[in-house]
Amino acid sequence: MSEREDGSMKLFKDIDLNLENRQKFFEKVGIDKNKVIAAEIVHGIKVEVVDKSSTKVISGADGIITKDKDVFLSITVADCIPVFMYESEAKIIAIAHCGWRGIVDGIIENMIVKILGTGGSVENMKVALGPGINECHFEIKDDVLDKFENYAEFIIKRDDKIFIDLKGIIRLQLKDCKISTENIEDNNKCTMESDRYFSYRRDKPVVTQAMVAIIGIKN
To answer: Can you give the pTM of this predicted structure?
Structure first.
């Protein structure tokens, strides 16, 4: 068996394992898998409002929003940052997959605009940043440095290397959208630093597992 074929066999095995682990997690927290709606994840800025009748995977989206109870919104991450949003008055929930491209291109602003358009207000917004790659490990090269030209304060140069504070950029964007800093929580955990989390950068070139992030309101 060739190395390539062996890698493919491992990939198929891990896909099955991922599905099994996902189902075990849903069962543990009391969530019906048929009530879960997932974003496809394309490292973009598309945000969709969904309801109980929506398809189970929202094509082309990295952010999803709903006002329906007993609907659970889901994304997968393995260094990218899961951002959870809850509008407490209108009972709107949302979740976004925030990779660096989506962050600099405006997925956070798109999420807020969509929530406001769904009847929410920034005054009642609660936001939580889940585990993701921190500035200690998110290294970039010169070829994409210009993408962060509007966020110079979050560029760290150390030992002839360039690092970016992605969570810092997200917090700034939320502040610019008038979200109170008191309503923003940050997990502060770095996925690459701890083997408690799956990490694309740490485990590449063969990365076959990711974490699921989920938000919902039970009836």
So the answer is: 0.91
Domain residue spans of the chain = 31-133+184-216
Which pLDDT does position 16 carry in this prediction?
Answer: 66
26: helix, strand or coil:
helix
CA angle 212, 190, 139 (to 5 degrees): 110
State pLDDT tens for residues 127-173.
999 999 999 999 999 999 999 999 999 999 999 999 999 999 999 99
Measured CA to CA, the distance from residue 84 to residue 80 in angstroms comes to 13
CATH superfamily for 31-133+184-216 is CNF1/YfiH-like putative cysteine hydrolases (3.60.140.10)
Distant-in-sequence, close-in-space partners of 66: CB < 8 Å, separation ≥ 6: 37, 49, 50, 51, 73, 92, 93, 94
